[in-house]
């Protein structure tokens, strides 16, 4: 009796799933919910909300649900714009002409900062010729659009240690050349 009850529950869930699927297909084909609404792209944060709120679309109805999601997308855009305007105000900018100049200068500063970090990265590897060759090949791969094939050395600010001088240490005569290199 227990097994039959479990199978009945399983069948009822399958029937409910089929019913919801047919209802959604009817809504799309009848034109209640236009296909453009289904294909609309939202920012990542709104897309996450859309995914979590999709199960409530049946309760709200397709039009109300779409309005709900659109209002949240608008809210997200307004918050982003407010944050940008607050950044301008903190920098002392009072008009949009100055804002365009500020954005242009900020972009060039970011590019310069990126170049400086690349230069410091090069200077870090300049003393070790093998590390320098690895860095150059990695940069060439990045410039050509490939993923780097050489393992990326750590950029924690530490330099690679120079090789140890093992001459005169006890037990080194038992090591072969590869072990001494390691």
From TrEMBL:
Ranges in a coiled coil: none
Region of interest called Disordered, as start-end residue ranges on this chain: 146-182
GO molecular function: chromatin binding; transcription coactivator activity
Gene Ontology CC, one term: SAGA-type complex
Gene Ontology terms describing biological process: chromatin remodeling; regulation of transcription by RNA polymerase II
Domain of life: Eukaryota
Record-linked PANTHER family: TRANSCRIPTIONAL ADAPTER 2-ALPHA, TRANSCRIPTIONAL ADAPTOR 2 ADA2 -RELATED
Name of this chain's protein: TAD2A protein
Species, as recorded: Leiothrix lutea (Red-billed leiothrix)
Gene: Tada2a
